[in-house]
C-alpha cells in the first residue's frame, strides 16, 4: 500500500497541469499513475521519417487563452514555437473550400454557389421552422439540405458513427454561427463573413512535435509519475486504486482523468451509476503517415467523401518545419490500410455527445466529488475539450483543492 495526499490518474494535459500546479504551490505529496511508457496522452508525438508526428491526431496550442499559454511557455518558451494563421479546408463537390463551408462557398464555381444559396435560403432556421431535436434533422434545419448531404452528414458519420441520431444537439453551439445574410454577403464580396472558428491562430513547436511540451511538464515531476501503471479498480469508500500488477494506492483525494470505461471494477458507487457508465460512448482513431507532399498550403483538410476511409488530413510539411508528408486520421472501424508501418491506434479519441450523456455525467461527477474523487479533463468529464481548455480547467481545479 502506497499512501499519498493526491493521487492523479493519467498523465495527459489534465493530469500533468494539475500535478505541476500543486507543486507550484509547494504541495509535493502526490503521485501520478500513467498506463503508457510516456506522458502526454492523446498529445504524444514520435519521430517518423526524421520529423515529428503526433500519434494522437492533430493537436495545436490555441492562442485564445493567453494565461494558459503564458503558463505553458514556462516549460517550453515561446521562442521555441511558430505562430500560424489557421488554413483549414474542406474537399467537397470536387473543390477545395476554406472552413467553415457556409462562410466560404464563394470560393466555388457560380453554379454550385447558386445551388448552395438556394438550399440555405430554405433551411428551417431561415424560414422560422421549429428547431428539431434529432441530430440529422437539426443539421438540415440549421444548414439546409445541400451542405448537410454533401458535407456535414457524411463527415460526421465518418468521424462519429453511422447512427448520428444517437447524438444530442446540445453541443452544436460549437459550430460556427453563420447566418444566411452572412453567406449571401460573402458570395457578393468574395470574403468570409463569420466568426472565426477554433484554432484561428495557433502555435506549433519549431523543432518538435506537440508531445514535447508535455514531456517537459512530466520531467519536472520526476519520480512522482509511475509509468506502465494500468489501473484496474477504484474504491470510492476506501479511496484506493488497485493496479493490474497488484499495487495499491490510497489517497486523501483522487483526481481521475482517464476514461470511466477503463476501470475493470468500481467499488463503492451506486449500481445505477455503474450501469450508466456502460452507456457512455466514444470513438477510436488510427493515425497513419504518408510520406508524399501535397500541393496545398492548408494545415489540415476535412474529407467527407464516404469512399475514402479517413475523415481528416494533417499536412505536416505546412506547419512542421523541415518535414515532409502528412498524416491521416481515420475512425478505427473504417481503417483499411493495414500495410502502413507507421499507423497508431488510439482506442480513446473522442467522447461522443450522446443524448443522455449530460444527465449521466452530472450524476457521476456529483457523486464522485462527494467522495473526494474529482473527474477532470476530456475523459474524466467525458467532454470533447481541446488541450488549452483542459489546462485552464486543471489550473482551476488545483486552486479549489488548495483552498
Sequence-ordered SSE layout with sheet pairings:
Blueprint: E1 2-9, H1 13-24, E2 30-33, E3 45-48, E4 51-54, E5 61-62, H2 66-72, E6 81-85, E7 88-92, E8 95-98, H3 110-121, H4 124-127, H5 135-143, H6 145-160, H7 180-189, E9 201-205, H8 211-221, E10 225-226, E11 231-235, E12 240-243, E13 248-256, E14 265-267, H9 271-277, E15 282-290, E16 300-302, E17 312-314, E18 326-331, E19 343-351, H10 357-370, E20 373-375, H11 377-380, H12 387-402
Parallel strand pairs: 1-2, 1-13, 2-10, 7-16, 11-14, 13-20
Antiparallel strand pairs: 3-4, 5-9, 6-9, 7-8, 11-12, 12-13, 15-18, 15-19, 16-17, 17-18
Helix pairs in contact: 1-8, 1-12, 3-7, 5-6
Polypeptide structure, described:
The protein is of the alpha/beta class. The mean pLDDT is 94. The radius of gyration is 22 Å and the shape is globular. Strands 1, 2, 10, 11, 12, 13, 14 and 20 form an eight-stranded mixed β-sheet that branches. It contains twelve helices and 20 strands. Helix 1 crosses helix 8, helix 3 runs antiparallel to helix 7 and helix 5 packs antiparallel against helix 6 (145-160). It has helices spanning 13-24, 66-72, 110-121, 124-127, 135-143, 145-160, 180-189, 211-221, 271-277, 357-370, 377-380, 387-402; strands at residues 2-9, 30-33, 45-48, 51-54, 61-62, 81-85, 88-92, 95-98, 201-205, 225-226, 231-235, 240-243, 248-256, 265-267, 282-290, 300-302, 312-314, 326-331, 343-351, 373-375. It folds into two domains: 2-86 and 205-402, FAD/NAD(P)-binding domain; 88-189, no CATH class.
Amino acid at each position: 500500500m502506497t499512501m499519498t495526499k493526491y493521487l492523479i490518474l493519467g498523465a495527459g494535459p489534465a493530469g500533468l497541469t494539475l500535478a505541476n500546479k500543486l507543486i507550484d504551490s509547494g504541495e509535493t505529496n502526490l503521485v501520478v499513475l500513467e498506463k503508457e511508457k510516456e506522458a502526454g496522452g492523446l498529445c504524444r508525438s514520435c519521430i517518423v521519417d526524421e520529423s515529428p508526428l503526433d500519434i494522437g491526431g492533430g493537436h495545436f496550442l490555441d492562442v485564445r487563452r493567453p494565461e494558459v499559454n503564458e503558463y505553458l511557455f514556462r516549460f517550453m518558451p515561446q521562442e521555441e514555437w511558430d505562430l500560424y494563421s489557421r488554413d483549414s479546408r474542406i474537399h467537397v463537390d470536387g473543390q477545395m473550400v476554406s472552413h467553415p463551408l457556409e462562410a466560404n462557398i464563394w470560393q466555388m464555381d457560380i453554379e454550385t454557389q447558386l445551388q448552395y444559396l438556394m438550399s440555405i435560403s430554405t433551411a428551417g432556421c431561415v424560414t422560422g421552422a421549429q428547431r428539431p431535436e434529432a441530430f440529422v434533422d437539426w443539421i438540415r434545419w440549421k444548414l439546409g439540405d445541400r451542405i448537410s448531404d454533401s458535407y456535414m452528414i457524411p463527415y460526421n458519420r465518418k468521424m462519429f458513427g453511422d447512427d448520428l441520431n444517437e447524438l444530442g444537439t446540445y453541443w452544436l453551439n460549437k459550430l460556427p454561427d453563420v447566418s444566411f445574410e452572412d453567406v449571401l454577403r460573402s458570395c457578393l464580396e468574395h470574403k468570409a463573413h463569420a466568426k472565426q472558428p477554433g484554432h484561428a491562430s495557433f502555435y506549433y513547436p519549431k523543432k518538435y512535435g506537440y508531445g514535447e511540451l508535455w514531456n517537459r511538464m512530466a520531467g519536472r515531476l520526476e519520480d512522482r509519475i509511475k509509468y506502465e501503471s494500468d489501473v484496474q479498480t477504484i474504491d470510492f469508500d476506501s479511496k484506493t486504486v488497485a493496479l493490474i500488477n497488484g499495487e495499491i494506492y490510497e489517497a486523501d483525494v483522487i483526481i481521475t482523468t482517464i476514461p470511466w470505461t477503463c476501470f475493470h471494477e468500481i467499488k463503492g458507487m451506486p449500481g445505477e451509476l455503474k450501469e450508466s457508465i456502460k452507456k457512455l460512448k466514444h470513438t477510436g482513431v488510427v493515425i497513419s503517415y504518408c510520406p508524399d507532399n501535397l500541393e496545398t498550403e492548408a494545415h489540415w483538410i476535412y474529407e467527407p467523401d464516404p469512399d475514402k476511409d479517413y475523415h481528416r488530413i494533417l499536412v505536416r510539411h505546412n506547419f512542421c518545419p523541415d518535414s515532409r508528408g502528412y498524416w491521416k486520421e481515420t475512425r478505427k472501424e473504417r481503417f483499411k490500410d493495414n500495410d502502413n508501418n507507421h499507423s497508431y491506434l488510439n482506442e480513446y479519441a473522442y467522447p461522443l455527445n450522446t443524448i443522455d450523456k449530460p444527465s449521466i455525467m452530472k450524476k457521476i461527477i456529483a457523486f464522485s466529488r462527494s467522495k473526494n474523487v474529482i473527474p477532470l479533463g476530456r475523459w474524466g468529464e467525458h467532454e470533447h475539450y481541446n488541450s488549452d481548455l483542459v489546462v485552464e480547467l486543471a489550473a482551476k481545479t488545483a486552486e479549489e483543492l488548495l483552498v
